[in-house]
Structure formats: structure tokens, C-alpha cells
């Protein structure tokens, strides 16, 4: 059996706007895959194509070994989906909606359903129109997680949840992975992807810019280095290959080092003596900025 | 109430007028053109006073037509004869336009959360309601002025034209106020429109009963209805301007009531509190069809009550149709129609055509649910589950097809039972159920048109209403304008045999059913192949 999701060269136009422009995405069976991109980069469109709601204009795609457009109904028995913008029927209660969606997928585990309702502090007796955005999202999440699907497609599932519920969500995703399920998690919240994903695909303007394991991606990027020296920094530091955004304030040094330049930087610093040294791998925020070209990492984050 | 409650109304009025900058002028144009062309056609049709008096008398003598449209108060006046359909049925349409406009700017915005965005700005609590009413007032005043101008241009006297324009505007204002109250009572726009339309249907029926009543009957009933007031205004037949005062006083009172209701409730809530529901779904809720029925059953139940009442009303009015015809001339008139039974049948056949039009309105509404579900993103979770598009669409279309059948059979049955109670002939019930059911193939054509539009041009699904209005105009105004037969044949309702009493023919019904089937299949094909938006 191949990958759970295999997409190559996906193209989709809406009128004159090109939403997807040759997107590639591969999700292996059993992994939690992060699908990252800024707003409007084509994440939701990709998911809607994978669900057979929208037809691709060009490109090859396989979902669980089948064609998402022609075999939609059969494939949907094996997956569960949480939309980014959850809309509920205004006069059905949350509990009724969860049961309905579960039964349509071929039945749901009652014990597990009740457990999840409890876990996410969801009141299942309220009508759809009375729920807040976060609570609507919880209804969709409980319906998806209580099902026995092989594949979970989650579109920014935590954008309305509070931090407490977000950590419940992360724990749930980890549990799903240990049960052998495949998860595609679309997000622009990098901390979440860092916390739960094995591999990520980063897209921009409908095109894949990077894909791989988090460890490999970090490898591609710079390391943030902060050091307190015994004396004033050596003058040769600024001239070294791979040193960026160097800031010197008395005896303290702050800079970013490209992967190949670390040896030389450390040797140079050691010539004057090092009191403290902090090296941190770049966060996904920094990776993101590298790809999306905000330019000055100094303004980012914090 | 404090002025701050209305802060920001001006800005909201401008926003409302901007959002409706196309809709309002188009509707006004439709009304003005119908009014002016109807006046012009009447002048051509009855060039002499004698011919007008004869035509007016034949309408006034028929309780069926008087019930349907109203009475002609001055048979010699060209204007009074011209506006007979416009004053009754036209006023109904003006009221409907007002209802839709007010709910669109109040409860629909509130339901969608757009009002929340505005409510957080420096906008008073009552400003959205006030702005919606101002927009409706502007629309109705423009409609009245344009209609008066159009009628004057068609050659009718100025004072009567002004009176008629004012009468239409008055009906519009009164129902803008009624809609404003309904928008406070219910939490969904759909049920607000439904409630206000039910009020409209009731006051139209009350007027019909009052107008059709004999000299000793309850004629005062006409004075309990805003539609009745518009007709008692008597444009071109006395121009009783003081009646407009009743309409305006009623409007002011109802607007005040709406304001009080709005001031006392939460954003998003209704006057009736929201109760908690079951934590688990009933065991029957396990298929897309069951969901479609669940979503539509409340509205269908309300329509069923309305149709049952309509049938009872028609059945009981029909029996009294012959009562007031005492003069020898009238007796002759009846004989040419085939005796009293013939007169009653002719009355019921006309009224059942209208039941068919109302049923088509329900069918369009029920089938359009597909579009509103899609647009509100509620189709997505279903179609992401193992539910095919055809099954999803089939659920709602099924409700539309079976619901319209249920409505017509109900109206036929209650009318038949009311007739049977009077005549002691139980066969009347069977006869009238059959006559009502004969409307069904034409009704289904409109359901199929809705599905066709939804399948290929989802954003234009609302165009099904335009099709219905066109068919009504073809049926009502077409014969008056002496248009070609081909145009009359465009409307599915033209092909329905006139039952009861007329000659039954299965062929047109079969053809209509086939047309509905073909259009529906084409629509479903579109649903299968297009992107979901």
C-alpha cells in the first residue's frame, strides 16, 4: 500500500484567480503531517479537492488509493473531516449533529463519544445557533475523533479553541497517531504543528515550497546564537561566511549562523573566551519568515 | 426612548439603500410597468362607458372574483376597472416585497452575525430596526410615486392615480411594520418571513370574506384588513383619503410594538426563549433524507395548516356563491354558466389555480434549501461523509415534491369536506382532491426549474421566483394584453385542465410531468459535475 495522500502538480483556477499552481503533497500512512501556509495560500482548496467537493483542473491525486472525485462516497467511509469554518444546523443540538455525522459514516463508538464530549467540556444539549465558534469546532472535532476513520483531515481545527482545549486537542492527536491513524493537519499556528507533526509541507501561493521532516527542515535553516564573551568580540567575526544579522553590544554577541558556518564561528569566539553560550534551533516562525520573505526576522515573533 | 438607541441610523440607511440599489429599482419598475400596461390595456379593451359598466357588473356579480380581487366601486370609471387586479393581488405582492426587504435588513443580518459587527460600533440598539424601516419607507414611497406617475402617463386622472399610488405605498408600509414585529419574535429569518406571510395570507382571506359577503353578511370584515383598507380607499371611485389615516395609524402602532420588543431582547435572541434540546439524536436521524425532513418539517407543517384553512375557506365560500344572485339578469347569467353547480365549479377552479401557485411557492422554497445549505457551508460536513451528492440533493427535492403534493391534497380535501358538509354529498371530497391534485405537475415544473438553476448556476437559484412571478403575470395580465398564444403556453399553469367542472385531459398533465422530470434530471446532472461553492 502506498501513501495515504499523493498529490502532484495540482492546479485549480477560480475564474481568473489561480488558487493552486502545481501543488505537491505526500502524506505517508500512520504519520501526522502538518500542512502549513499563510491565509489564502490554498490549504482549504486542497482539502476540498481531496474531499471531492471541488474538482481539480490539472494534476494527479490519490487519496487512500482511490480517486477523490469519482470514488468520493466510498473514500469518505474511511476518513473524517473537520472544516476550518464549522457551520451547524441552527435547530439541531450539538449532540444530534455528532450522532448524525457519526451514523452517516457508519456508526460511532458511544463510549468514546461521551468521553470526548466530557473531555472537551462540550454541552451537547445546546442548539447549533447558540454555539460560539470554538464550541462549533468542538462539535466537529468530537464527531471526527469518535469515528473509526483511517484518515483525519483537519483544517485549522484549533483556531477557535482556548489554550486549555488546544492542549487537549494535541493529546488527542498524539493518541490517534499511536492508534495508527493518519492525520493531515492544516494550520498556520506553528507551535501546534511543531508539537504534534512528524513531517510538514509548507505552501505559498498555491505551490509547495518545502516538505520534509521537521528535523531536516531545521537543518536547512540558521541557528540563533547568543554569547557573552570574556572580552570584546574578535573583529574577524563579521567577515565569516554564514554569519547573519550580527549585533554586538559590548562583550555580548547575537547573530544567526547558517548550518555550514557554525565551526568557524565557534573557533573565532573561543579565541577571546566564552562565558555563556546559547544556541537555539530556529522555531517554525523563523522558518516561515525565511520562506515568506518578511525579510527582517528581528521584527518577528515575540 | 432615548435618542442614543437610534444613533447611527443614518449610516445604516445609506448602507441598506446601497445593498439594495439594484433590487429596489428593478422591483419598482416591475410594479410600475404592470400597473401602467394594465391600465392601457383596459382602455383598449373597454373603450366605451357602456362596455366598462358591463364588464364591471359581471365581475361584481361574481362573488368568486370579488373574493379574489375585490369589488369595483364605480363601474363607469375607467380607472376603477383598470386597477381591479392591481388593488387586490398587486397589493399582496407589494406587501410581500416589504416583508422580504425588512427581514433581509433585520433578522437575516442578525442571524448571519453581520449585525454583531455593526452592534459593536457606535450604533444604537434600535438603529438596525429603524434603518430597515426607513429603507422600506423610502422604497414604498418611491413605489407609490412611480406608480402614480405611470398610471397618469397611461391616461388615467391625476387624483385617482395619486390615491392608488398612496394605497399601494400604505399596504407596503403596514406590512413593513408587521414584518418588523415578526423579525423580533422568531430567531431565524426564514421563520420571520413565514410568520409575516401567514399574517398577510390571513388578512387577505379576511378581506375576501368581507368583500364576497352578501348584503346581510359580515361585510365589516373588509375593514379589519390592511389590504381591505387599500381597497376601501377607492382610487378613481371617490378617492377617500381619510382611509389612508387608518393605515398610517395601524403602521405607527405596529412599529411602536416592534420597537418595544426590540428594546427588550438580546442580540440574536427572539422574544421566545431558546430551550435546551436532546443530547442524543433520535434513532431515526441517520440518513441525509431524514435530515432534510427534520430541517424542513416545521415550515411544511405551517404551510399545511395554511392550506387546510384555505381549503375550508374556499369550500365554505363556494356554497354561498349563488346566494346573492337574485335579479333576473343574474339568474340568466348563471344559466349560461351551467346552473348553480357550474358557477360554484367555476369559482373553485379559479381558486384552485391560486392554490397551485401557492404550492409552487412552497416547492421553490423547499428546493431552494439546497442552495442555502450549500451557501451556509452546511452541505460540506454531509458531503465529506459517505453521502453522495445525488442523495443529498434528493432529500430536499423529495421534501419539495412530496410536500407540494401533500399541500394540494390537503386543500382539496378540506374544501371537499366543507362542500360535503353543506351538500351532504361525500363525493365532493373525492372530486375536489382530484381537482387540486391536477395542479401538481405544473407545480413540479417549478420545483424542477429551481433544481436546474441550482445545478448549473447556483448563485441564480433565486431566479426560480422570477420564473414563478413571470408565469403569474402571463396568466393574469397576458390575456388582458392580448399577447400571442405561444406566450400564454409558456406558463405550466396554462396547461392545467380547469377542474372541477372543466374537461379532464390527461395528456397535458403527462407532458408537464415529463418536462419536470427532464428539467430535474438535467439539474441533478449539474449538481453532480460542478464545484461546491
Walk me through this protein's architecture:
- The complex is a heterodimer of chains A (302) and B (533).
- With 302 residues, chain A is of the alpha/beta class.
- Chain A contains 10 helices and 13 strands.
- Chain A has helices spanning 43-50, 72-76, 94-104, 110-119, 133-145, 163-178, 190-196, 214-220, 262-270, 284-292; strands at residues 5-14, 17-27, 32-36, 58-63, 79-82, 151-155, 182-187, 199-204, 207-213, 223-229, 243-249, 252-257, 274-280.
- Chain A has a 6-stranded mixed sheet with strand order 5-6-7-3-8-9, sandwiched between helices. A 4-stranded antiparallel sheet of chain A has the order 11-12-10-13, covered by helices on one side.
- In chain A, helix 3 packs parallel to helix 5.
- The relative contact order of chain A is 0.14.
- Residues 294-302 of chain A have low confidence and may be disordered.
- By secondary structure, chain B is mainly alpha-helical.
- Chain B has 2 domains: 1-271, no CATH class; 292-533, no CATH class.
- Helix content of chain B is 74%, strand content 0%.
- Chain B contains 24 helices and no strands.
- In chain B, helix 10 (158-185) packs antiparallel against helix 12.
- The radius of gyration of chain B is 24 Å and the shape is globular.
- Chain B starts with 8 loop residues before the first helix and ends with a helix.
- At the A-B interface, helix 2 and helix 3 of A face helix 14 and helix 17 of B.
C-alpha-based Rg of chain A, rounded: 23 Å
The pLDDT mean of chain B sits at 88
According to DSSP, the number of beta strands of chain A is 13
Shape of chain A: elongated
Quickly count the helices of chain B: 24
Tally of helical runs of chain A? 10
State the major sheet of chain A: 6 strands, mixed
Alpha-beta classification of chain A = alpha/beta
Number of domains of chain B: 2
Sum up the overall morphology of chain B in one term: globular
Q: Which regions of chain B contain 5 or more consecutive residues with pLDDT less than 50? A: none
Q: What's the order of the H and E elements of chain B?
A: HHHHHHHHHHHHHHHHHHHHHHHH
Give the amount of beta strand of chain B, in percent: under 5%
N-to-C span of chain A: 44 Å
What percent of the residues of chain B sit in helical stretches (DSSP H or I)? over 70%
Q: Give the oligomeric state.
A: heterodimer
Give the termini distance of chain B in whole angstroms.
44 Å
Structural class of chain B: mainly alpha
What is the strand tally of chain B? Answer: 0
Amino acid at each position: 500500500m502506498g501513501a495515504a495522500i499523493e498529490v502532484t502538480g495540482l492546479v485549480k483556477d477560480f475564474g481568473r484567480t489561480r488558487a493552486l499552481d502545481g501543488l505537491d503533497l505526500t502524506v505517508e500512512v500512520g504519520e501526522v503531517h502538518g500542512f502549513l501556509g499563510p491565509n489564502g495560500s490554498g490549504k482549504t482548496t486542497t482539502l476540498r479537492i481531496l474531499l471531492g467537493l471541488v474538482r481539480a483542473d490539472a494534476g494527479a491525486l490519490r487519496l487512500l488509493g482511490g480517486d477523490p472525485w469519482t470514488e468520493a462516497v466510498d473514500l469518505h467511509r474511511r476518513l473524517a473531516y473537520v472544516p476550518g469554518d464549522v457551520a451547524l444546523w441552527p435547530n439541531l443540538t450539538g449532540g444530534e449533529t455528532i450522532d448524525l455525522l457519526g451514523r452517516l459514516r457508519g456508526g460511532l463508538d458511544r463510549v468514546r463519544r461521551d468521553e470526548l464530549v466530557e473531555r472537551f467540556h462540550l454541552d451537547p444539549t445546546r442548539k447549533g445557533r447558540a454555539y460560539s465558534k470554538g464550541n462549533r469546532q468542538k462539535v466537529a472535532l468530537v464527531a471526527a475523533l469518535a469515528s473509526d476513520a483511517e484518515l483525519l483531515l483537519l483544517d485549522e481545527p484549533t483556531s477557535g479553541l482556548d489554550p486549555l482545549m488546544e492542549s487537549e486537542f494535541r493529546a488527542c492527536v498524539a493518541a490517534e497517531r499511536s492508534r495508527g491513524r493518519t492525520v493531515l493537519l492544516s494550520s498556520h499556528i506553528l507551535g501546534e504543528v511543531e508539537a504534534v507533526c512528524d513531517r510538514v509541507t509548507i505552501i505559498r501561493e498555491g505551490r509547495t515550497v518545502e516538505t520534509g521532516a521537521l528535523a531536516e527542515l531545521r537543518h536547512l535553516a540558521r541557528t540563533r546564537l547568543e554569547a557573552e564573551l570574556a572580552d570584546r568580540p574578535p573583529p574577524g567575526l563579521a567577515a565569516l561566511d554564514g554569519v547573519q544579522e550580527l549585533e554586538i553590544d559590548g562583550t555580548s554577541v547575537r547573530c544567526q549562523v547558517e548550518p555550514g558556518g557554525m565551526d568557524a564561528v565557534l573557533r573565532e569566539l573561543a579565541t577571546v573566551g566564552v562565558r555563556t553560550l546559547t544556541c537555539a534551533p530556529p522555531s517554525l516562525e523563523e522558518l516561515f519568515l525565511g520562506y515568506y520573505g518578511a525579510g527582517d526576522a528581528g521584527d518577528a515573533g515575540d | 426612548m432615548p435618542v442614543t438607541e437610534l444613533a447611527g441610523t443614518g449610516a445604516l440607511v445609506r448602507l441598506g439603500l446601497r445593498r439594495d440599489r439594484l433590487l429596489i429599482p428593478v422591483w419598482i419598475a416591475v410594479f410600475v410597468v404592470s400597473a401602467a400596461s394594465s391600465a392601457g390595456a383596459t382602455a383598449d379593451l373597454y373603450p366605451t362607458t357602456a362596455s366598462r359598466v358591463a364588464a364591471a357588473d359581471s365581475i361584481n356579480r361574481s362573488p368568486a372574483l370579488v373574493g379574489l380581487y375585490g369589488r369595483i366601486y364605480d363601474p363607469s370609471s375607467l380607472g376603477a376597472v383598470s386597477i381591479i387586479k392591481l388593488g387586490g393581488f398587486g397589493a399582496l405582492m407589494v406587501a410581500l416585497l416589504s416583508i422580504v426587504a425588512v427581514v433581509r435588513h433585520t433578522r437575516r443580518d442578525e442571524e448571519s452575525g453581520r449585525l454583531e459587527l455593526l452592534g459593536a460600533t457606535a450604533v444604537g440598539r434600535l438603529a438596525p430596526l429603524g434603518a430597515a424601516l426607513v429603507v422600506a419607507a423610502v422604497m414604498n414611497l418611491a413605489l407609490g410615486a412611480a406608480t402614480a406617475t405611470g398610471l397618469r402617463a397611461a391616461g388615467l386622472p391625476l387624483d385617482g392615480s395619486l390615491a392608488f399610488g398612496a394605497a399601494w405605498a400604505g399596504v407596503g408600509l403596514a406590512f413593513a411594520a408587521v414584518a418588523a414585529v415578526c423579525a423580533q419574535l422568531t430567531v431565524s429569518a426564514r421563520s420571520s418571513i413565514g410568520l409575516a406571510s401567514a399574517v398577510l395570507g390571513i388578512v387577505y382571506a379576511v378581506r375576501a370574506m368581507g368583500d364576497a359577503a352578501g348584503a346581510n353578511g359580515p361585510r365589516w370584515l373588509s375593514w379589519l384588513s390592511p389590504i381591505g383598507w387599500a381597497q376601501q380607499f377607492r382610487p378613481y371611485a371617490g378617492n377617500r383619503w381619510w382611509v389612508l389615516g387608518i393605515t398610517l395609524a395601524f403602521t405607527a402602532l405596529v412599529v411602536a410594538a416592534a420597537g418595544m420588543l426590540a428594546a427588550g431582547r438580546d442580540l440574536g435572541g427572539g422574544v421566545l426563549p431558546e430551550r435546551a434540546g436532546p443530547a442524543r439524536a433520535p434513532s431515526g436521524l441517520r440518513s441525509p433524507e431524514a435530515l432534510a425532513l427534520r430541517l424542513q418539517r416545521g415550515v411544511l407543517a405551517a404551510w399545511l395548516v395554511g392550506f387546510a384553512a384555505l381549503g375550508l375557506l374556499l369550500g365554505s365560500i363556494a356554497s354561498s356563491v349563488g346566494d346573492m344572485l337574485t335579479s333576473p339578469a343574474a339568474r340568466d347569467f348563471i344559466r349560461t354558466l351551467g346552473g348553480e353547480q357550474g358557477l360554484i365549479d367555476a369559482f373553485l377552479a379559479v381558486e384552485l389555480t391560486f392554490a397551485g401557485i401557492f404550492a409552487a411557492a412552497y416547492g421553490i422554497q423547499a428546493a431552494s434549501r439546497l442552495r442555502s445549505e450549500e451557501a451556509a457551508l452546511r452541505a460540506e460536513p454531509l458531503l465529506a461523509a459517505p453521502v453522495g451528492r445525488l442523495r443529498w440533493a434528493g432529500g430536499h427535492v423529495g421534501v419539495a415534491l412530496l410536500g407540494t403534493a401533500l399541500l394540494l391534497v390537503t386543500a382539496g380535501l378540506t374544501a371537499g369536506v366543507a362542500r360535503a358538509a353543506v351538500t351532504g354529498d361525500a363525493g365532493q371530497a373525492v372530486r375536489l382532491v382530484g381537482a387540486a391534485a391536477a395542479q401538481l405537475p405544473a407545480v413540479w415544473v417549478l420545483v424542477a426549474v429551481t433544481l436546474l438553476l441550482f445545478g448549473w448556476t447556483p448563485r441564480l437559484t433565486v431566479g426560480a421566483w422570477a420564473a414563478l412571478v413571470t408565469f403569474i403575470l402571463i396568466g393574469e395580465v397576458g390575456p388582458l394584453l392580448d399577447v400571442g398564444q405561444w406566450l400564454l403556453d409558456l406558463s405550466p399553469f396554462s396547461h392545467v385542465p380547469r377542474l372541477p367542472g372543466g374537461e379532464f385531459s390527461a395528456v397535458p398533465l403527462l407532458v408537464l410531468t415529463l418536462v419536470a422530470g427532464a428539467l430535474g434530471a438535467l439539474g441533478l446532472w449539474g449538481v453532480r459535475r460542478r464545484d461546491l461553492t
